[in-house]
Amino acid sequence: MATKRERDATAYLKKHKIVELMDNMTSMLLFYRPENPKEFLIEQLDLLKVSRESGIRGPNLFDNSNLTAVCGIMDPANQKYISFAQYKQALTMLGIKDININPEGRAKDKISHETFKTEAMEVLKRDSATYAKY
């Protein structure tokens, strides 16, 4: 059983979305691999502050062209759809943990590229919104 201090710490982390913030910052470090990681993190935090103050969406590692490339990898025959297993694998590969388990096309096991990209962007936008709430 968790102590009051542990419960308070957990509540604090959830309230301020600290885990999501750290996950996103770590992902950005690994994606960009800057020469000076501390300076890079300071710059990112400054950008996040501006994002929060202006209401503009926070940074996001992936855009439509990246998601199109993922579709190309998952669908080399260019059938314009992927299986549900590929959908889950691709989202996991992008670091997305909380996926829609019933996307359009699941019943026929044919998830269109557009559905995949829409689902991925929705989660990525939601995750980048955690920046604005740190």
TrEMBL record:
Residues 65-123 form the EFCAB10 C-terminal EF-hand domain. It comes from the Eukaryota. Gene3D superfamilies: cAMP-dependent protein kinase regulatory subunit, dimerization-anchoring domain. InterPro entries: DD_EFCAB10, EF_EFCAB10_C, EFC10. Pfam families: EF_EFCAB10_C. PANTHER family: EF-HAND CALCIUM-BINDING DOMAIN-CONTAINING PROTEIN 10. This is EF-hand calcium-binding domain-containing protein 10-like. It comes from Xiphophorus maculatus.
